[in-house]
Design brief:
Blueprint lengths: L11 E2 L2 E2 L9 H4 L3 E4 L4 E10 L6 E8 L8 E6 L3 E4 L4 E4 L3 H6 L15 H8 L9
Parallel strand pairs: 3-8
Antiparallel strand pairs: 1-2, 3-4, 4-5, 5-6, 7-8
Length: 135
């Protein structure tokens, strides 16, 4: 979709971009965005993002990965720092081997791991990142 200036995805309301600019994107447009390996292989897509309430920082992109037609699908939280947006691919790229993703902390649709305060630490630890202070 193009806005009145001809730019893609820039729905405007009274002159203010409401969904995407060159530097910003709304959360609802992130959901469903493809995730690729650094080799260009499609790995999955962003199911949702998890935002730290107090700081407003995006902490995780939860990637749907595996399964077929929703059966056997797992949700893999990735620390936001592990994703890089690639405008040429129109998606996010992670420099993480598929095998490492398959073994990463994940959960099924009917599970609620976020209730465990140590779950987020385990995700950051798995990817070798320090857990953000204040969480």
């Amino acid at each position: 979709m193009q806005d009145e200036t001809g730019r893609r995805g820039g729905m405007r309301q009274e002159g203010v971009a409401t969904s995407e600019t060159e530097q910003l994107i709304s959360a609802d447009k992130v959901e469903g965005t493809a995730v690729y390996s650094s080799a260009g292989d499609h790995l999955g897509s962003i199911y949702t993002v998890m935002i730290e309430k107090r700081s407003g920082q995006v902490r995780y992109a939860v990637m749907s990965f595996g399964g077929f037609l929703g059966i056997g699908e797992r949700y893999h939280p990735l620390p936001w720092e592990k994703l890089t947006y690639d405008p040429d691919q129109g998606g996010y790229v992670v420099d993480i081997p598929r095998e490492q993703l398959e073994s990463a902390p994940s959960y099924a649709r009917d599970e609620t791991p976020w209730n465990d305060p140590l779950y987020g630490r385990s995700v950051y630890g798995y990817y070798g990142l320090p857990f953000p202070m204040g969480l």
